[in-house]
Amino acid sequence: MTVHVFAGPTVTPERITGLLPGAEVHPPVQHGDLLRLPACGGDTVLLVDGFFLQAPAVRHKEILHLIHSGVRVAGTSSMGALRAAELHRFGMIGLGQVFRWYAEGTVTADDEVAVSHLTEEDGYRQLSDALVALRYGLERATGTAITAAERDALLAEVAALPFARRSWRTLWRITGHTPLADAAARVRAYLADHPQDADVKLLDAELALRWVLDNPVPPASAGERPSTLDTVYLADWRWEHTPVPAGDRRTSDHLALGFLQLFLPAYPRLNRYTALARIGGDADGALAAARAAGLIGEEDEPSPGMREWLTDEELATTSGRELVLTALVRSFRTEPGVRTTHTLPDLVSSAEPLLRLARKCAATAGAMNDARRQRHPEFQVEHVRTDLVEQFFSARWQCADLETACWDRGLTGLGQLHELGRYYLLFGRSGRAPEQALAAVTVGAATDHGEESR
User: Fold this and answer.
1) Residue 265 phi, psi dihedral angles, 5° rounding
2) Which segments constitute the TfuA-like core domain (predicted)?
3) Tens digit of pLDDT for each residue in 370-381?
4) Do 30 and 50 contact (CB within 8 A), yes or no?
């Protein structure tokens, strides 16, 4: 059974493994990390710290998915305490004072656990102190060094600051020439004698690590796992973050398939074959299914709803079977709200060289994005301009209508093009796409009737 700990800057890796030998230490948790984690029933995940500004925060559904899978998930100190307070009714374990404050409603603002810190290369060195740390230290000093009224006044002074400016040193400075100067000096002297009271997040983290060590995971029994809704969002996130190997890196088949959708010239035909096969086995079966569902008229004319998937030019110049098949392919979803691309098309999964190539290119694109971020820390894939994405792929696909071109490639529309295109824009512009290998991939005309050729 493995213990995974997500932490930094609250507690160092050395302190974690010193208190919990054998623990696997990870950086602060962010969205997707728990879905990528190779955890299984009987394992423990302890969440201490988590990103929220530099990257999307860990989602509640990710935690519930682990719990439902039989993984024990506990939270403490910071992001872990916040999520545990929100999810302890659903099986997550909360540990420590910060968790209790959130669970009881004493603390309600999530910025109370936020701190400013450096990057992983600098050990996530902390540049500010969390408001919960100051709250705890002032509370501990109350009755010994200061009165309750002085505690409340000092806390109000530092709480009024942005989270990145909050610290004990800032509190000493801003009260230095105020009526609170004497009270602040007494707190400072108290903390010099009781340094452990200056950082409740560290105290909580150490308590949680000892608790995990002293409380092995009991054998799972039927009925212990809470139910969870398998929403379209969770399905999306699992598909996007489940890792697959790609040389010395890891990527996801979501990104590998995205590469083929964006860069493979033959992908519109491959997507057409896949959609028609899933609808009715082949083109004739798909038409029969559409007639049975009332999507086309007696003369195989598309219904008003189906016509929304066609351009004015197509409606004016195309008729009959081809018009209906085009609309069926573009509108196809496995079920309402779910992308067709939550699994690899059979033509891709069965073509191992093509899949290896796609995974390699996905990993290369990720490495290029990481390298750009190393050189320019302000760079974020999510902030790449969408107009640049649209310009690049409009030119690559040589299309008159970009949205219908997206549909023909199995994308849900411009939104998904922006999502994948941002990830691949540096790669595409670099000229590193294996154009010759991609051009050699063909899907024969016979695929409309269930045959394939490559």
Assistant:
1) -60, -35
2) 49-167
3) 999 889 988 989
4) yes
Q: Spell out the alpha helix ranges (H) of 318-351.
A: 321-331, 346-349
Residue 318 tokens read as: 């195309």
- Give me the long-range contacts of 161-164 (CB less than 8 A, separation at least 24): 163/111, 163/114, 163/115, 163/116, 163/128, 163/130, 163/131, 164/114, 164/115, 164/116, 164/127, 164/128
- Say how many C-beta atoms besides its own lie within 10 A of residue 417's C-beta: 24
Taking domain 3-119+203-215, whether its CATH number is 3.40.50 is answered by: yes
- DSSP-derived 3-state class of residue 177: coil
**Distant-in-sequence, close-in-space partners of 152: CB < 8 Å, separation ≥ 6:** none
Domain boundaries, the chain: 3-119+203-215, 130-198, 236-449
Count CB-CB contacts under 10 A for residue 11. Answer: 27
**Cα–Cα dist 192/198, whole Å:** 9
Q: What is the pLDDT of residues 316-344, one digit of tens each?
A: 998 778 999 999 999 987 655 555 568 89
Phi-psi region of 217 (alpha: psi -120 to 50; beta: other; left: phi over 0): beta
* Residue bearing tokens 């294996």: 434
